[in-house]
Amino acid sequence: MELWRALLALLFLLGCSGSSHHSLHYDYVVVSEPSEGLPQFFTMGYLDGQLITYYDSQKKEKIPKVSWMKEVEKEDPKYWKDGSDILKATEQVLQEDLRNVQHRYKQYRGFHIWQTTYGCELRGNRSIRGYSQYGYDGRSFLIFNKDTLSWVALDPQAQITKMNWDANLRWSQRNKFYLEEECIEWLKKYLSYRRKEMLPWTEPPVMTMTRRTEVEDDGMETHVCRLDGFYPREIDASWTRDGEVWLQDTFHGSVVPNADGTYHYWLSIRIDPKERCRYRCHVEHDGLQEPLDMALKEPKSNLGIIINCIVVALVLGCVIAGILVFFKKHQDGYKAATSEWVFFLPL
Questions:
Q1: Residue 201 reports pLDDT greater than 90
Q2: Most confident of 73-77, 111-115, 197-201, 303-307
Q3: Segment (H or E) for 266
Q4: Residue 51 in 3-state DSSP?
Q5: pTM of the shown model
């Protein structure tokens, strides 16, 4: 793995969460000591966790990372050029930020990293969320509270910046407007581009069922229904009892993207083993010609398990005995061996 990818995995202040229905967010990174494979400045844009835009200080060009992002050129032919120009200016501001924060910590040498991440989420219940925060060397530095139009200093060295930025009310209002209005509009626009290209593509979910081998203290057992490799993201999955949706003692994970653009999801249920035959995992998805219903599997016979254990134990005993003999014989021998947020202020 390249150095900068490893750094991101360790240091990024992730603003988006898997609980949102759709999300758009941007990460900006400046480093004090660039190297081969690690530009001094780079930024990436994500839609639902998928990389869609990229820019760095070496190429100095904002580029699309998915084919459907080129649709934006039809509405705005200067989108990529304007975005590149904006990021060139942003790069200068954030590099100055890094020098200033190093000075505050009296860290004039060595490798240091300055980050900012911001974005918005459009949730399944139509509520929205916007966020913006800064970090230094992987630690939170400042977080924007858009409800109070103020910045929260998470480090003593951030107090000076907090006071300066809090005094600029107009800038805070602009940030709030972007996070709650403009960002959501861009999010919807990018979703429309993606849907336009991906509409013909559907992948049905692959369903697997697992059961906990141990029995709970109260006699209940847990079953997990896993759904993998499906597209589009929207999926309707539930547990049913006697054909009716059953919510009691059920738990749901978040719909999470896979590396290939598909998604996976899980839901579990705790039941009385005596009523196992009454439950089904019910799934509806655009990739399915008809809904899936999978019954809970009955456990294998204990007799078969006991026989298998005996056979394994005998084989293992023989192997161990052989190893001991081998070591005994060789003991002596072994001893010898642009849609982006452009309103940045300096620290």
A1: no
A2: 111-115
A3: strand 263-271
A4: strand
A5: 0.58
